[in-house]
User: Which sequence fits this backbone?
């Protein structure tokens, strides 16, 4: 997937820098999951909780997961 210039990928080691309530876009295993908001992060940045809308709810991601967290505008498809 190509990202628009306004998308900023967040390195896995920097997840702890994401602020609660920040809008992010999640891609897991190469498939775009959708937008969500940061609900929390561990102090060491190894775990990130994202709140999705609708039935998806809250989901936890680990640093070792095959996931890309992008902050900013919607990714281009």
Assistant:
């Amino acid at each position: 997937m190509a990202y628009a210039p306004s998308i900023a990928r967040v390195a896995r080691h920097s997840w702890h820098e994401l602020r609660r309530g920040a809008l992010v876009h999640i891609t897991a295993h190469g498939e775009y999951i959708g937008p969500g908001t940061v609900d929390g992060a561990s102090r060491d940045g190894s775990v990130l909780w994202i709140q999705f809308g609708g039935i998806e709810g809250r989901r936890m991601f680990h640093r070792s997961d095959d996931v890309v967290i992008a902050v900013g505008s919607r990714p281009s498809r």
The mean pLDDT is 81.
